[in-house]
Amino acid sequence: MTDADVDTVLFDLDDTLCRYQRSVGEVLSLAFDRTGVEPVFDADDYVASYDDYAERADSIDDLRRRCFADLAADRGLAPDAGRAVADAYTETRDQTAVEPLPGAAAAVEALATDHRLAIVTNGAPEMQTAKLGALPFGDRFEHVVHGGYDAPAKPSPEPFHHVLDLLDARADRAVHVGNSLGSDVRGAHAAGLRSVWLADGSTPAPTPTYAVERLDELVDPPWW
């Protein structure tokens, strides 16, 4: 097989195709302010805990209430204080207030002309659907698989296999584009796909098949 055999491109969503206009840290700070709860945990604590709750929660709101209750309790506050912060976070966060990353629109539009496109994202369906619907190129993707909900979360190979089954596509003819070495690159390789890493300047481990600094570098794909 040669590199020119690629006919399917999968994308991560968060911090690959789009990002929030207001960061997790900003929204969390506002939630603490609104509730008057002492800010005993931060955005890094929330993000690091997210996947632990994804497969047990019924929704993103339920996930956040479970997570924040435990984070608060671990730091000596009542679980109800954490749940209050979670509710304030939900009221503050607008899931449609996202913006495409530089070059994302150009990459998606160019690749859509001769590749099948889909998304593999770790995130609650209602949350990710709102984000995708706010993007000008959101209708370019044939399928979306939500890791932690439709299948185990990345880096498990299962969400990749699931979307390839939906597309009736082959792993050896597909690449996955994402910003996370741990979830996107590792998961893609475990599933038998090539990877494109949206580089952040760090030393990559595992080593991606390709690396780009901006998504519009994929207008002329490195696999051609």
TrEMBL record:
**Which Pfam families does the annotation name?**
Hydrolase
Q: Enumerate the UniProt keywords alphabetically.
A: Hydrolase, Magnesium
Q: What is this protein called?
A: Putative hydrolase of the HAD superfamily
Name the species this protein comes from. Answer: Haloarchaeobius iranensis
Record's superkingdom? Archaea
Q: Which InterPro entries match?
A: HAD-like_hydrolase (IPR051400), HAD-like_sf (IPR036412), HAD-SF_hydro_IA (IPR006439), HAD_sf (IPR023214)
Q: Does the keyword Magnesium apply?
A: yes
Q: Which GO terms describe its molecular function?
A: hydrolase activity
Q: Name the family the entry cites.
A: Belongs to the HAD-like hydrolase superfamily.
